[in-house]
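Appendix C: a fully annotated inverse folding record. The material below is reproduced so that readers can follow the format used throughout the book. The structure is listed first as C-alpha cells, followed by the designed sequence.
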C-alpha cells in the first residue's frame, strides 16, 4: 500500500535511475526529488526539475535530507533545511555545469579551466560547510570564500548578480529598494574586490573613525650555516630605523650551539618571533631587520693561549641586515612565509662594534669584512595584518610553534584598555675608565643586578631578548683592550609593579684578564634608583652615572652604604651635604652612561599628573594643578584615566563654586582626548567608568550650568576654541549629566525632578539659540555650530534614559527646526546640517514610530529644500534611503500609512524633478553640484531611482487616491503625469542598473507596472473626453511600449529555472502591461485617430515580442487603426505605409518569427471579414504577410552564415516585392544598394552594375535638387545620375562586360556634349575606345548555365517550389556547381532524374534540389551568323543577354528498329524562358515559362547535317580569308571527321532510315523534309570539296599522306551516296564522295563558327542529341572541339544494340541537362562521392580522363568497324598517332553512369565488348584511322558531369543483363560500306555547340554512331580479319606509347596568363601537346569538374588505362585568343611542336 510520507520529504539522487519499471521516474545523479508516498522500498514523487511528472523510484537510490514542509497535502511545498548558502551553491553549480561545457565548445579555453578550478573549490568548500565541524569564525570565512567565488563565476559567465547580506541571498520583499540597491552595489564591489578581504562596504554614516590596522612581522630563523665560529652564539634580531638611527623594537634572542643548531633541543623549528604593532606609518619608514651575532667563548677566537678554556666571555662576532623596504612587496603579495639569506659581516675594529649595522647599511665596506661564502642566517618572513586577536584566530599554527612576541619599544598607535605593561628598557651606552697603571687597556665586562629596597637581588627581572627566559644578572659583552667601550646593548627590565618603588640597579665593572688564571677583577661600580623621591619614575633620557671605586674584597651586603651616595650629577646637586668619610670613593675621571625608556601603563614620569592625583597634599595649588592637566601627555592620562576622573569629581564636590569651571574644562579636555584615534579604544573604559565607578551624584547641576554658560557666551566671544571643545564633548558630558542625575534620583528617591527637567529645557533653549545665530558674518561661529550639530545626535540615547520618546523627539524637533532653513548659509554648513539630520535618522530615536511622526516633517522639510535647489544630493539620498529602510522594516510590523502619506506629499514631486535633472545632466555628461566627482552621476541616479521606487512601492491605493485628488487643477495633474512617465521611460532607456542586476530590474518593472495601473485610471478619467491631451497619452503609450520591450522581461532567452522563478514571483509583466495598454487604447474612442500613424511603429514593436498572449492582445489594435482611418479618410493608406516601413526595420533588428506572420494574418483577416472594406483590407493583410515572409527570409539569410547566393536571392526577392507589389520606392532603392554591396563583396561586378542601373534608371537628366540619402550628399538629380553612370561603367569594366558599358558611355557622351564639357567628353570617349580594345584583346571565359529546381516546403519562400537558371562562376562545371548548391542547402536531397516532381515532393517538409546544365539560346543570332565577325565578339553574344535555355532528352516512339534506331529516335526539347535575361541583377533568375517540343527523327537529322555544314563553311571561310594562319590542323580534323564518318557509315544511316521506300510511303507528309535532307547532303559534299581544295593549298608537305587519304575517302563517300542522290557524280573529283554523319565527329576538332555549324551540321544525325547553343546542332563551335575527342574514342568502340546504350548513357543530346556548353544531360546526382567521382584527381590525369569519360560505357560502345586500316602499320598506329591515343586514352578512367540505379550498376556485365579478348581491339584501328589522319590532336573534352546518362525513360529500359546480339566481326579493310548513320542517342550524336550531346562530357558526343549501325550493313563484308589480330599493346602501357608530351600554350600573346592558370583545377580544356584548340567563336566553356565514377564491369580496363600518363600535363583550356599572332601562325607553331616531339 502506498502511504503518504511523514519525514521523508526531500532527497538527492545518489545513483541514476533509468525508470525501467512501469510508472518509473527517470532520474539523473545529483537531481533533487520531492517525495510524496512510500511503499516497500519504493518512493513515489517528482523531480524538482520537472515538477509535473510523477513517478516511482527505489528508496535506496535516494539520500534523504531534512526539509520544512508547508501546506501539507496535495499542494505541499518542501524547502530543504540546510544553510541557504549551501542551497545556493548547489543550484549555481548545476546551472554552471551546462554553461561550462559550452565554453569548451566555443573554444574559451582559459575561462573553461579557470571555471573548472573554481567549481572544484566550491564543491570542496561546500563539503566543509556541510561537515558541521567548523567553528563559527571558520563557517563565516568559508561562506565568504564561497560567495566571492559564486559572484566571480556569475560575473564571468554573464549571469545575474546576487545581492547578499552576511553571505545570504536577500529577499527583495523584505527590504526597501534603497537597501536592495546598496546590496547590489556592495555585491558588485565584492566581486570586483574578490581578492581583497572586504566583506561589505561600510555604512555611509558608520563609525566616525576607523581603527588603524596594525602590521606584524613573523620571523623564523631556519638555520645559521656559518660554521667557522666553532663556539656557541647568541643571535639578536631587532627592527632598526635608519633615519632615526635607533632601534624601534625589543630584541629577539636565539641561542645556538657551535653547530649552528638551537642550544635547547626543544627549540628546533621553534626559533621564531612576531614583531608586533607596527603602524602604517612604521611600514613607510626605512626599516631594517638587524641581527647581531655574539659568540660565547675565548677572548680571542683564534688564540687558545688568551684566557683559560673554562672561562667564557660574551664577545662580539658579526652582524647581518635585511632591508624591509626591499622585501615588503614580495612578502605582501603572498600569504605564506618567504625565505631570505642574511650574510653575516664581521667587524674590522671592535671599537666600532656599536655602529657595525649602520656601516653595513651605509655600505662603508672598509669597516667590516664580508664572509668568504654566501651562507649566513637563513630566515623566513611573513607579513600579517590585524589586531592580535585576529592574528591568533587566523594563524593558530604560528602560535602553536611557541612564537616569541617581540614588542615595539614604545606604545603602539592604539593603546588597548586591557593592555597592562610595565617595561623599563635600559640601554648600556658607554663608559670611560682609567688605565690603572697598566700598559694595555682593559677588557671590561659590566654586570648588572636589580635590587629591592631591602637589598635582595630580584629574580628574573632582566631579559636580554624575547625568546629566552629572564635572568637575575646581566653580563655585558667584552670589548678587547678598550677603556672606553661603547656597547649600545638594550636590556628589558620587566620589574613587577609592586617592587618598582624602592628598587635600584647596580652595575659592577670588572677587568677580564687573559693571563693564565684569567680571573675577572672588580674595580668599580655604579648604581641608580628606579624612582625619584617625588614618586616619578626615572625619566626617558641618558643618565651619566658616577663610578665608585671598589675591589674584590668590597662588600655590597649593606646596600645602604652606597645608596646614600649621589648616583649622578642631578642627584649630587639635590643633596650636597654628603659625608666624605665613606667606604666608597668616587672615581672622578671615570663615567658610565645608560639611557632608559619606560613603557608602562602603571607608572608615570609626569610630575603634574602625580600632583593632581595627590591634590590634597597641595590644597593651595589646586587651581594651578587643574590648569596644568592639559599639558600632560595623552598616554599618561589614559593610563590613569579612572584615577584622574575620580580625582576631578572629588575636587568638584569639594568646592563647586571655586573649581567648577576648571573641572569642566579638564573633563572636556579628557573627553576630547578620547576622540583621538590613538585612544579611541579607551572610550569603552570611559563608558564602563560612567556606568560602574562614577559617583558624582551632584555633578550634573554644575555640568549643566557650565555647558549653558558656554553656549550663552557663544554670541559674544570672538575666540571660541573652548566653546567648540565643549560642543565636541557633548556626548560624554550628557552621559555624565544623566548618570549623575540617576545617581542623585536613586539617592533622594527622585527629588528635584522638576528642576532637572527645566534645566534641561533651558539647556536646549541655549542649544537652539546657538544654532539660530546667523553665522555668515563669523567664521568661528560656523565652527561652533558645526561642532554642536556633529555631537548633537549622540545625546539622544542618554536623554531617552530620563525622558519619554515623545519628549526627546520634541527636543530634537525644536533643535533641528531652529536651524536656518535657507540653503545659502554656505555649503560647509549645509553639509554639517544634513549630516546631523542623517545621524538623527540613523539613531535609535528615529526607529520609534511615535518619534518618527514628530521628526519626519522637519527632516523632510530640510531635504525638500535641498532637493528643490539640487544641493548636496548625495547626502540627501543617504538620508532618504535610511528613512525608507526604517519605514520598510516598520511596515512589516505595523502601520506606516501616515508616514508614507507625509513623504508622498513632501517628496514625490521633488524626487521626480530631481531625477529628471540628474538624468538630463548625466546624459549631457555634466557633473552635478554637491556630487564629489563626475563618476558619481551613475551612483546618484541609482540612489534617487531607488528612493523613488521605495516610495512608490510603499504607496497603497489610498495614497494614490489622495495624491491624485490633491491636485488643484488638471494642468498640475498633467505636469505630474508627464514627469513620472518621463522618469519611467528614462529608467528603461538609460539602463540605470547594470545588465546583471536582474533582481533590481525586475523589482523596478514590477513597481512601474503597479504604479501605471493606478495612474492610467486618472489619465482616462481626466484626459479622455473634452479634455483630451495628446501629450500625456502619447507619453503613456511610449512608456507602455518601452516597458514591454525591456530586455530584462524577455523571458524566452532565460534558462527554464530562471524563467520559472520570475513567473512564480511576478508573473509575465509584459502581459499585464499589454492588457493595460489595450484597455487604454479602447478607452480613447474617437481620439484614436490622433495616434495614427504615430503609434503604429511602437505597437508593431510590441506585437513582435515573442509572447503569444501579448500578440493576441495587441495585433487587433491594427484592425482598429485601419477601421478608424477608413472612417476618417475613406482608406487606410497611412496605416499601410507606416506598417510596411516599420516592419522592415523591426524585422531586420531580429524581431518577429514565422508564428507571428501566421498569427498576424489570422487575427486580422478574422476581424476584417466583418468589415465593409473587406477586399482592400484582405489584400493589404495578404501583402503585409507576404512582405513578412520575405523579410524573415532576408533576415535569416543575413543573420546566418548563409552563402552569398542565398543572401543575394533573398535581397532580389525582397527588392522586387517592394517595387512591384507594394510600390515603396525608398525601400526599393535601399535594397538596391544592399544588393549592390553584396555583389561587390562576392565580386559579381557585372551584377553589381546591373543592380545600380535600376536606381540610375529611376533618375532623369534634370536639375531637380535631391535630399541627402544613404551615402549620397544632397545634390542635383543630374549630378547623382552622372555619378551613378560612372560607377556603373566602372563595375561593368571590372566584370569584363564592356558591351554593356559602352551604351552608358555614349549616354554620358551625349550629356557632356550638350553641356560642352569637352574635358569629360574626351575622357568618356577614350574610355569607350579602351572598351572596344578590351573586347578584342582580353580573354573572357564563357560561363556555364545550370537549371536548379527547389522543391519542398523547407525552402525559404523566395525559392519554394520554383525553378531557376543560374549563371555559373568562371571555371565552374556542373559538379562544382552541384557541390556548391548542396553546401548552401546542407539539408537538401539531390534528385536523380530530370522529370518534373510530383505533388508529394512539392508539399513535403524537406528540401529537394534538381540540378542539370542547360544550353543558352542567344537572341542575337544575326551577329553570330556574320562571317567576318571575330570569335571574341561572337562569344560574348552567345552567353550574354540570354533569356531562353534548353535541354534535350532522346526517346523512342513506337517500336524500336534494332538495325537502325534513327528511324524511331525522337528528341524531347524543353525550352525554359526566364523572367529576366542573364546576366542581370542576380546570377540567377526564375523560370517564367517552359515549352516542350518533340523533334522528329527526320527533323533532327536535318538539324545535325545543317549545323555541320555551317560549321565547315565557317572554318573554310576563315582559312580562305586568312583569319586562320599557318596551322591547318583544325581544318584537317574537321574534314577528316566528316569524310571518315561518312565513309564508315555516318550519313549512310540517315539514308538508310529516311530515303527508304517504306519510310517515304509511310510518311507522305515528310517528302519536303526528305528533299531538304538530300539537298543538305549534296551541299555537304560540295562544301567538303571546297574544303579539300583549301586544304590542299595550305597542307604541310609532311601531311600530304593525310590529304591523299582524305581525297580517297571523299571518293568513297561520293560513291556511297551516288545511288541515293543522283547527280553527285557530276561533281568535281576533288569533291566527289558522300558526306556521312561521321563528319561530326572529328570535325569538332577545329574551332568552328556557327555558320560553319550550319553548313555542315544540318543533316548530321548527331544533332539528335546535340545541345547546340544557338542552333540545335550538336557540334557547336568550341565545344565541338572538345567533342572531337569524344568521337575519336567513341567510334572505335564495339557496337551493340542501341537500347543497351540508352541505359548507360547520357540523357539526351544537345541540351538534355546539358551545361551551357557542356554536355546536356548533366543531371545532378547525389550518389556518394565515390560514385560521383572524386574531384581530387591530379590535373595531369584530367584531360585524358575526361576523354575517356566521353566514351560510352563499354558494353554500349558503338562499333567502329567503319574505319579502314589504311594507316595501320602492322596493326599498330604510327608513333604520333599512338602518342595521340595514349594522350587520349592513357590515364582516363572509364566513366560509369552516375544516374544508374544501384541495382542496374550491380548487374554483372555481359561479356564486355571492350575486354581485350573480344572485339574490342578494333577500337584501335578506328582510332588510328581517325587519329592518324589528323595532325592536330583533339582538344580534350570536359569531364563528365553527373547524371549524364540518366535516361530512365520507358522506351529505353533494357536490362543490363540482356545479352548483346551477336555481332559479325568487321573487316578492317577499306571496303565500301553503306553509310550507317550514327546513333542519335549515343552520346555523341548530341555534339552540339556545347560539346554536342556530351557538351564536353560523356553524354551525347560519345557515339556518333549508334551501336546497331555498325553491325548490320546491308551487305556484310566477308570477315577477313578478326579483332584478335590487333595487337593488344594498343591498350597496354607500351613504351612506344609514352611520348613525352610537353604542354603547349594556347596563345602566343599571353603565355604568362595561361602559365599562371595552369595549376588551377579549373574548367580549362587540358589539351595535349600540339593541339591548338582554336574556337572561332566562343571561348571554351568552363568544363565541369571531371568525375571518375565508373561502372563495375570496367575494372579490368581501368587498371590498364590508368597507368599510362605520368608525363601528360593538363593544359588549361584556352580562354580566348588574342587577335595578334594570327590563328594560322598559332596552329602552325603548335603543329610543329607536336611533330618535333614525335
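Designed amino acids, in order:
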Amino acid at each position: 500500500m502506498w502511504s503518504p510520507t511523514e519525514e521523508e520529504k526531500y532527497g538527492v539522487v545518489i545513483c541514476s535511475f533509468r525508470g525501467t519499471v512501469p510508472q518509473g521516474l527517470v532520474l539523473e545523479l545529483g537531481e533533487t526529488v520531492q517525495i510524496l508516498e512510500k511503499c516497500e522500498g519504493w518512493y513515489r514523487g517528482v523531480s524538482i526539475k520537472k515538477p509535473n511528472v510523477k513517478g516511482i523510484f527505489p528508496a535506496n537510490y535516494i539520500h534523504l535530507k531534512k526539509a520544512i514542509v508547508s501546506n501539507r497535502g496535495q499542494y505541499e511545498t518542501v524547502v530543504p533545511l540546510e544553510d541557504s548558502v549551501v542551497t545556493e551553491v548547489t543550484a549555481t553549480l548545476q546551472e554552471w555545469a551546462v554553461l561550462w561545457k559550452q565554453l569548451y565548445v566555443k573554444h574559451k579555453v582559459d575561462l573553461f579551466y579557470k571555471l573548472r578550478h573554481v567549481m572544484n573549490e566550491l564543491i570542496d568548500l561546500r563539503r566543509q560547510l556541510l561537515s558541521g565541524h567548523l567553528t563559527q569564525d571558520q563557517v563565516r570565512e568559508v561562506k565568504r570564500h564561497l560567495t566571492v567565488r559564486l559572484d566571480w563565476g556569475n560575473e564571468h559567465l554573464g549571469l545575474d548578480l546576487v545581492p547578499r547580506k552576511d553571505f545570504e541571498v536577500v529577499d527583495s520583499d523584505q527590504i526597501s529598494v534603497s537597501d536592495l540597491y546598496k546590496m547590489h552595489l556592495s555585491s558588485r564591489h565584492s566581486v570586483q574586490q574578490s581578492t581583497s578581504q572586504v566583506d561589505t562596504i561600510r555604512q555611509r554614516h558608520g563609525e566616525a573613525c576607523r581603527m588603524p590596522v596594525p602590521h606584524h612581522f613573523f620571523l623564523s630563523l631556519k638555520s645559521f650555516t656559518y660554521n667557522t665560529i666553532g663556539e656557541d652564539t647568541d643571535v639578536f634580531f631587532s627592527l632598526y630605523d635608519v633615519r632615526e638611527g635607533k632601534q624601534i623594537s625589543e630584541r629577539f634572542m636565539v641561542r645556538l650551539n657551535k653547530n649552528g643548531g638551537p642550544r635547547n633541543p626543544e627549540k628546533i623549528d621553534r626559533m621564531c618571533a612576531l614583531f608586533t604593532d607596527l603602524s602604517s606609518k612604521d611600514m613607510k619608514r626605512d626599516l631594517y631587520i638587524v641581527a647581531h651575532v655574539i659568540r660565547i667563548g675565548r677572548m680571542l677566537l683564534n688564540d687558545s693561549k688568551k684566557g683559560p678554556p673554562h672561562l667564557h666571555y660574551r664577545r662580539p662576532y658579526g652582524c647581518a641586515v635585511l632591508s624591509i623596504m626591499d622585501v615588503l612587496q614580495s612578502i605582501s603579495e603572498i600569504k605564506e612565509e618567504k625565505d631570505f639569506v642574511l650574510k653575516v659581516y664581521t667587524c674590522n675594529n671592535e671599537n666600532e662594534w656599536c655602529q657595525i649595522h649602520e656601516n653595513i647599511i651605509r655600505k662603508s665596506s672598509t669597516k667590516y669584512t664580508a664572509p668568504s661564502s654566501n651562507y649566513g642566517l637563513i630566515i623566513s618572513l611573513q607579513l600579517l595584518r590585524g589586531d592580535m586577536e585576529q592574528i591568533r584566530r587566523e594563524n593558530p599554527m604560528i602560535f602553536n610553534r611557541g612564537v616569541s612576541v617581540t614588542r615595539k619599544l614604545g606604545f603602539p598607535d592604539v593603546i588597548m584598555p586591557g593592555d597592562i605593561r610595565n617595561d623599563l628598557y635600559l640601554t648600556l651606552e658607554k663608559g670611560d675608565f682609567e688605565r690603572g697603571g697598566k700598559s694595555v687597556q682593559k677588557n671590561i665586562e659590566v654586570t648588572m643586578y636589580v635590587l629591592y629596597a631591602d637589598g635582595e637581588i630580584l629574580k628574573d627581572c632582566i631579559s636580554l631578548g624575547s625568546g629566552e627566559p629572564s635572568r637575575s644578572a646581566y653580563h655585558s659583552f667584552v670589548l678587547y683592550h678598550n677603556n672606553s667601550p661603547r656597547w649600545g646593548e638594550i636590556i628589558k627590565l620587566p620589574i613587577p609593579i609592586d617592587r618598582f618603588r624602592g628598587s635600584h640597579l647596580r652595575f659592577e665593572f670588572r677587568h677580564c684578564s687573559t693571563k693564565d688564571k684569567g680571573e675577572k677583577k672588580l674595580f668599580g661600580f655604579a648604581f641608580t634608583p628606579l624612582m625619584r623621591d617625588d614618586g616619578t619614575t626615572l625619566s626617558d633620557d641618558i643618565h651619566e652615572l658616577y663610578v665608585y671605586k671598589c675591589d674584590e674584597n668590597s662588600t655590597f651586603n649593606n646596600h645602604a652604604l652606597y645608596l646614600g651616595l649621589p648616583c649622578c650629577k642631578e642627584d649630587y646637586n639635590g643633596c650636597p651635604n654628603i659625608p666624605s668619610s665613606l667606604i666608597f670613593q668616587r672615581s672622578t675621571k671615570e663615567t658610565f652612561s645608560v639611557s632608559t625608556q619606560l613603557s608602562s601603563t602603571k607608572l608615570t614620569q609626569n610630575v603634574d599628573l602625580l600632583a593632581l592625583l595627590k591634590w590634597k597634599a597641595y590644597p593651595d595649588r589646586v587651581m594651578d594643578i587643574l590648569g596644568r592637566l592639559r599639558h600632560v601627555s595623552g598616554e599618561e592620562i589614559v593610563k590613569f584615566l579612572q584615577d584622574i576622573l575620580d580625582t576631578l569629581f572629588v575636587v568638584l564636590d569639594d568646592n563647586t563654586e571655586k573649581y567648577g569651571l576648571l573641572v569642566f574644562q579638564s573633563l572636556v579636555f579628557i573627553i576630547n582626548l578620547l576622540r583621538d584615534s590613538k585612544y579611541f579604544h579607551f572610550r569603552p573604559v570611559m563608558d564602563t567608568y560612567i556606568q560602574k565607578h562614577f559617583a558624582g551624584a551632584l555633578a550634573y547641576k554644575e555640568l549643566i550650568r557650565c555647558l549653558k554658560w558656554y553656549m550663552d557666551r557663544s554670541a559674544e566671544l570672538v575666540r571660541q576654541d573652548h566653546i567648540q571643545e565643549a560642543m565636541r564633548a557633548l556626548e560624554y558630558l550628557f552621559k555624565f549629566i544623566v548618570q549623575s542625575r540617576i545617581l542623585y534620583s536613586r539617592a533622594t528617591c527622585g527629588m528635584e525632578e522638576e528642576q532637572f527637567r527645566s534645566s534641561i529645557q533651558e539647556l536646549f533653549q541655549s542649544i537652539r539659540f546657538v544654532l539660530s545665530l546667523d553665522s555668515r558674518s563669523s567664521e568661528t561661529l560656523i565652527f561652533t555650530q558645526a561642532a554642536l550639530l556633529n555631537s548633537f545626535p549622540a545625546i539622544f540615547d542618554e536623554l531617552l534614559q530620563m525622558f519619554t520618546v515623545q519628549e526627546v523627539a520634541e527636543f530634537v524637533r525644536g533643535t533641528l527646526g531652529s536651524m536656518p532653513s535657507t540653503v545659502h548659509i554656505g555649503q560647509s554648513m549645509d553639509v554639517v546640517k544634513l549630516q546631523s539630520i542623517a545621524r538623527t535618522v540613523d539613531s535609535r530615536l528615529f526607529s520609534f514610530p511615535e518619534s518618527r511622526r514628530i521628526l519626519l516633517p522637519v527632516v523632510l522639510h530640510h531635504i525638500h529644500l535641498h532637493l528643490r535647489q539640487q544641493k548636496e544630493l548625495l547626502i540627501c539620498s543617504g538620508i532618504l534611503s535610511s528613512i525608507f529602510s526604517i519605514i520598510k522594516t516598520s511596515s512589516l510590523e505595523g502601520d506606516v500609512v501616515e508616514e508614507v502619506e507625509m513623504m508622498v506629499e513632501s517628496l514625490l514631486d521633488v524626487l521626480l524633478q530631481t531625477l529628471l535633472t540628474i538624468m538630463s545632466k548625466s546624459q549631457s555628461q555634466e557633473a552635478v553640484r554637491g556630487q564629489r566627482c563626475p563618476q558619481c552621476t551613475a551612483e546618484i541616479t541609482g540612489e534617487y531611482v531607488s528612493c523613488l521606487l521605495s516610495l512608490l512601492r510603499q504607496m497603497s491605493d489610498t495614497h494614490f487616491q489622495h495624491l491624485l485628488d490633491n491636485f488643484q487643477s488638471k494642468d498640475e495633474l498633467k505636469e505630474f503625469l508627464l514627469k513620472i512617465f518621463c522618469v519611467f521611460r528614462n529608467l528603461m532607456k538609460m539602463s540605470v542598473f547594470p545588465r546583471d542586476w536582474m533582481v533590481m530590474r525586475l523589482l523596478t518593472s514590477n513597481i512601474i507596472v503597479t504604479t501605471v495601473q493606478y495612474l492610467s485610471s486618472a489619465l482616462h478619467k481626466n484626459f479622455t473626453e473634452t479634455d483630451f491631451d495628446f501629450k500625456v497619452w502619447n507619453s503613456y503609450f511610449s512608456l507602455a511600449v518601452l516597458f514591454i520591450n525591456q530586455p530584462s522581461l524577455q523571458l524566452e532567452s532565460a534558462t527554464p529555472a530562471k524563467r520559472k522563478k520570475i513567473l512564480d514571483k511576478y508573473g509575465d509583466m509584459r502581459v499585464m502591461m499589454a492588457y493595460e495598454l489595450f484597455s487604454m487604447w479602447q478607452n480613447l474612442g474617437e481620439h484614436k485617430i490622433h495616434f495614427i500613424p504615430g503609434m503604429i511603429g511602437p505597437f508593431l514593436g510590441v506585437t513582435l515580442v515573442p509572447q503569444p498572449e501579448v500578440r493576441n492582445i495587441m495585433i487587433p489594435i491594427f484592425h482598429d487603426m485601419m477601421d478608424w482611418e477608413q472612417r476618417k479618410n475613406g482608406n487606410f493608406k497611412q496605416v499601410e505605409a507606416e506598417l510596411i516601413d516599420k516592419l522592415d526595420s523591426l524585422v531586420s533588428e531580429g524581431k518577429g518569427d514565422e508564428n507571428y506572420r501566421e498569427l498576424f494574418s489570422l487575427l486580422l483577416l478574422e476581424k476584417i471579414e466583418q468589415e465593409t472594406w473587406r477586399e482592400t483590407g484582405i489584400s493589404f493583410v495578404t501583402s503585409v504577410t507576404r512582405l513578412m515572409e520575405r523579410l524573415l527570409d532576408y533576415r535569416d539569410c543575413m543573420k546566418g552564415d548563409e552563402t552569398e547566393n542565398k543572401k543575394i536571392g533573398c535581397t532580389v526577392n525582397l527588392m522586387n516585392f517592394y517595387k512591384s507589389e507594394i510600390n515603396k520606392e525608398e525601400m526599393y532603392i535601399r535594397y538596391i544598394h544592399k544588393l549592390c554591396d553584396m555583389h561587390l563583396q562576392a565580386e559579381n561586378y557585372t551584377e553589381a552594375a546591373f543592380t545600380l542601373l535600376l536606381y540610375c534608371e529611376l533618375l532623369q537628366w534634370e536639375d531637380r535638387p535631391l535630399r541627402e540619402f544613404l551615402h549620397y550628399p544632397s545634390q542635383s538629380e543630374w549630378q547623382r545620375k552622372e555619378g551613378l553612370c560612372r560607377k556603373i561603367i566602372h563595375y561593368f569594366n571590372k566584370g569584363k562586360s564592356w558591351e554593356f558599358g559602352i551604351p552608358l558611355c555614349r549616354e554620358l557622351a551625349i550629356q557632356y556634349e550638350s553641356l560642352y564639357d569637352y574635358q569629360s567628353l574626351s575622357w568618356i570617349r577614350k574610355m569607350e575606345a579602351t572598351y572596344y580594345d578590351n573586347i578584342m584583346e582580353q580573354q573572357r571565359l564563357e560561363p556555364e548555365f545550370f537549371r536548379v529546381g527547389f522543391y519542398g516546403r523547407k525552402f525559404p519562400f523566395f525559392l519554394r517550389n520554383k525553378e531557376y537558371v543560374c549563371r555559373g562562376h568562371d571555371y565552374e562545371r556542373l559538379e562544382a556547381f552541384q557541390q556548391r548548391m548542396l553546401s548552401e542547402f546542407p539539408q537538401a536531397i539531390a534528385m536523380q532524374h530530370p522529370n518534373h516532381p510530383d505533388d508529394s515532393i512539392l508539399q513535403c517538409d524537406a528540401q529537394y534540389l534538381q540540378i542539370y546544365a542547360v544550353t543558352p539560346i542567344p537572341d542575337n543570332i544575326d551577329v553570330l551568323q556574320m562571317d567576318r565577325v571575330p570569335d571574341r565578339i561572337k562569344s560574348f553574344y552567345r552567353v550574354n543577354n540570354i533569356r531562353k535555355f534548353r535541354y534535350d532528352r532522346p526517346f523512342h516512339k513506337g517500336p524500336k528498329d534494332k538495325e537502325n534506331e534513327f528511324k524511331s529516335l525522337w528528341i524531347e526539347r524543353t525550352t525554359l524562358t526566364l523572367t529576366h535575361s542573364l546576366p542581370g541583377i542576380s546570377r540567377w533568375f526564375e523560370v517564367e515559362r517552359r515549352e516542350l517540343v518533340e523533334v522528329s527523327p527526320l527533323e533532327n537529322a536535318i538539324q545535325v547535317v545543317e549545323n555541320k555544314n555551317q560549321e565547315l563553311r565557317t572554318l573554310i571561310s576563315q582559312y580562305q580569308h586568312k583569319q586562320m594562319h599557318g596551322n591547318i590542323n583544325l581544318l584537317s580534323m574537321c574534314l577528316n571527321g566528316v569524310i571518315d564518318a561518312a565513309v564508315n557509315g555516318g550519313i549512310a544511316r540517315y539514308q538508310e532510315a529516311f530515303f527508304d521506300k517504306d519510310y517515304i510511303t509511310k510518311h507522305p507528309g515528310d517528302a519536303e523534309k526528305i528533299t531538304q535532307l538530300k539537298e543538305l547532303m549534296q551541299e555537304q559534299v560540295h562544301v567538303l570539296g571546297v574544303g579539300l581544295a583549301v586544304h590542299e593549298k595550305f597542307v604541310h608537305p609532311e601531311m600530304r599522306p593525310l590529304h591523299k587519304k582524305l581525297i580517297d575517302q571523299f571518293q568513297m563517300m561520293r560513291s556511297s551516296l551516288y545511288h541515293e542522290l543522283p547527280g553527285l557524280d557530276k561533281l568535281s573529283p576533288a569533291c566527289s564522295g558522300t558526306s556521312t554523319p561521321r563528319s561530326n565527329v572529328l570535325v569538332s576538332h577545329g574551332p568552328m563558327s556557327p555558320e560553319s555549324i550550319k553548313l555542315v551540321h544540318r543533316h548530321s544525325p548527331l544533332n539528335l542529341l546535340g545541345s547546340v547553343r544557338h542552333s540545335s546542332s550538336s557540334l557547336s563551335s568550341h565545344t565541338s572541339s572538345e567533342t572531337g575527342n569524344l568521337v575519336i574514342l567513341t567510334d572505335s568502340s564495339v557496337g551493340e544494340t542501341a537500347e543497351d546504350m540508352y541505359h548507360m548513357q547520357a540523357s539526351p543530346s544537345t541540351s538534355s541537362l546539358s551545361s551551357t556548353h557542356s554536355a546536356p544531360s548533366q543531371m545532378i546526382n547525389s550518389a556518394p562521392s565515390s560514385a560521383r567521382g572524386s574531384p581530387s584527381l591530379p590535373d595531369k590525369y584530367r584531360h585524358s580522363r575526361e576523354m575517356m569519360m566521353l566514351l560510352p560505357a563499354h558494353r554500349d560502345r558503338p562499333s567502329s568497324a567503319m574505319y579502314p586500316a589504311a594507316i595501320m602499320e602492322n596493326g599498330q598506329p604510327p608513333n604520333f598517332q599512338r602518342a595521340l591515343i595514349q594522350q587520349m586514352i592513357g590515364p582516363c578512367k572509364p566513366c560509369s553512369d552516375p544516374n544508374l540505379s544501384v541495382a542496374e550498376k550491380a548487374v554483372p556485365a555481359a561479356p564486355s565488348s571492350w575486354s581485350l579478348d573480344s572485339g574490342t581491339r578494333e577500337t584501335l584501328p578506328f582510332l588510328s584511322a581517325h587519329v592518324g589522319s589528323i595532325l592536330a590532336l583533339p582538344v580534350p573534352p570536359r569531364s563528365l558531369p553527373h547524371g549524364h546518362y540518366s535516361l530512365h525513360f520507358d522506351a529505353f529500359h533494357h536490362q543490363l543483363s540482356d545479352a548483346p546480339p551477336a555481332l559479325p566481326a568487321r573487316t578492317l579493310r577499306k571496303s565500301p560500306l553503306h553509310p550507317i548513320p550514327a546513333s542519335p542517342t549515343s552520346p555523341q550524336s548530341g555534339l552540339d555547340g556545347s560539346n554536342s550531346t556530351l557538351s564536353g562530357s560523356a553524354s551525347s558526343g560519345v557515339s556518333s554512331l549508334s551501336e546497331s549501325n555498325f553491325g548490320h550493313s546491308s551487305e556484310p563484308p566477308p570477315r577477313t580479319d578478326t579483332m584478335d589480330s590487333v595487337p593488344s599493346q594498343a591498350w597496354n602501357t607500351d613504351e612506344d606509347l609514352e611520348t613525352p608530351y610537353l604542354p603547349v600554350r594556347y596563345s602566343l600573346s599571353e603565355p604568362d596568363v595561361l602559365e599562371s592558370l595552369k595549376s588551377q583545377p579549373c574548367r580549362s580544356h587540358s589539351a595535349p601537346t600540339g593541339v591548338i584548340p582554336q574556337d572561332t567563336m566562343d571561348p571554351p566553356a568552363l568544363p565541369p569538374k571531371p568525375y571518375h565514377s565508373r561502372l563495375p564491369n570496367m575494372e579490368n580496363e581501368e587498371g590498364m588505362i590508368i597507368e599510362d600518363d605520368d608525363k601528360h600535363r593538363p593544359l588549361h583550356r584556352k580562354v580566348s585568343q588574342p587577335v595578334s599572332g594570327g590563328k594560322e601562325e598559332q596552329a602552325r607553331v603548335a603543329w610543329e611542336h607536336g611533330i618535333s616531339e614525335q
